[in-house]
Structure formats: C-alpha cells, structure tokens
Design a protein that fits this description.
The chain is mainly α. It is built from five helices and no strands. Helix 2 runs antiparallel to helix 3 (about 45-65). The two termini are about 20 Å apart.
Length: about 140
C-alpha cells in the first residue's frame, strides 16, 4: 500500500505539467500521459527527466490498478473533508473571538478578527472548490 502512495507521489512530481483535473485517471490514462511527457522531454533533450519518467511509467505498468486509483481518489476526498471540517471550526472560533471583541468595544481587536475571519472564509471556499473537484474526479472513475 505504501508503494502505491510513493508511486502516486512520483507520478505527481514527474508529471508536473498535468492539471489538477487530470489527477484522478485510469491507469491507461496515466501511462499515456507519461509517454507523452517522455516524448516531450526527449524532444528538448532533458534526459534526466526522461529517466525519471521512464521509471514512473514502469511503476504504473507494474503496480497501478483501477481499484488503487479509485482508492487514492477516495483518500483524497476523505482528507479534504477532514481539512474542511477543521477550517470550518477555525471560522467558528474566529467568529466567537470577533463577537467577544465587539462586546468589549475593542475596535483594534474587532478589525483584527474581521481580517482573520475573511482569510479563514477564503480558505474554506478554496477547500470547498478542491473538495468538489476531488468528488467529481472520484465519480468519474
């Protein structure tokens, strides 16, 4: 199992030009993407990258299964859901601190917590987008 996680990491590092939307793919899609990257790297004479990509291709061909791809996609969704729950808790805590500062009439702290709240809310929106994308990728498998 750890080997598949390492493979996934190697693939993500090796195929830096791929978009996030392409992250959850079938094994055949992964192999095809790596082969394209190999051809491009060869055209530009980047033989160190070619060697790394060939190793990644070998690992995909030897160890990748559609079940492992789906399992990795589910892990990603689960991780993002936990992270989102934590961020929402952070928002609730900052909202509480903001209300306390308003009740005390401490304008300096009110401004501080308003800024902090806006930042936390941006984080939540970004995570929600990532989670929706990850769910869509999982559903597509």
């Amino acid at each position: 199992m750890k080997k598949l996680t390492v493979i996934t990491t190697v693939l993500m590092l090796s195929i830096g030009g791929m978009s996030v939307a392409q992250a959850a793919q079938s094994c055949n899609d992964k192999a095809s993407a790596i082969e394209r990257e190999i051809r491009i790297a060869e055209q530009f004479g980047n033989y160190n990258k070619v060697a790394g990509l060939k190793q990644a291709l070998y690992e995909v061909n030897m160890h990748c299964t559609d079940a492992s791809v789906k399992k990795d996609a589910q892990k990603k969704v689960d991780k993002l859901e936990r992270k989102l729950a934590d961020k929402r808790q952070d928002v609730a805590e900052v909202e509480y601190d903001l209300q306390k500062a308003k009740a005390k009439g401490d304008q300096r702290k009110v401004i501080k917590y308003q800024n902090k709240l806006a930042e936390k809310q941006r984080d939540v929106r970004q995570l929600e987008q990532e989670l929706n994308q990850a769910r869509a990728e999982l559903a597509a498998l």
